[in-house]
Amino acid sequence: MGKWILGGVTGLIGMLGLFLSSRAADETFYYGGLIAFVVAIIFIFGMVKSAFDRAEARAHGDNAEHA
């Protein structure tokens, strides 16, 4: 359950970054918001990839969950 919460919080940070970027008055907040969004998306894609890797390892009978 903790991974769901982490993913949700990361998604909220990404949305906050987009909001910050859309309301930016200067370039610092604009690019900072976009960077926060991109980092959040990459992190969430990494979480999805690791979940699929664990599921595939379970399907093949490997014990790669502890790696």
What is the global morphology?
elongated
Low-confidence runs: none
Intertermini distance: 19 Å
What share of the residues lie within helices?
over 70%
Number of strands: 0
Radius of gyration: 16 Å
Task: State the helix count.
Answer: 2
Write the SSE topology:
Layout lengths: L1 H21 L4 H33 L8
Helix pairs in contact: 1-2
Descriptors:
81% helix; elongated; 0% strand; mainly alpha; 67 residues
Would you mind describing this structure in some detail?
The chain has two helices and no strands. By secondary structure, the chain is an all-alpha fold. It has one domain. α1 packs antiparallel against α2. The longest helix is centred in the middle third of the chain and has 33 residues, at 27-59. The two termini are 19 Å apart. The relative contact order is 0.13.
Summarize the structure.
The protein has 67 residues and is an all-alpha fold.
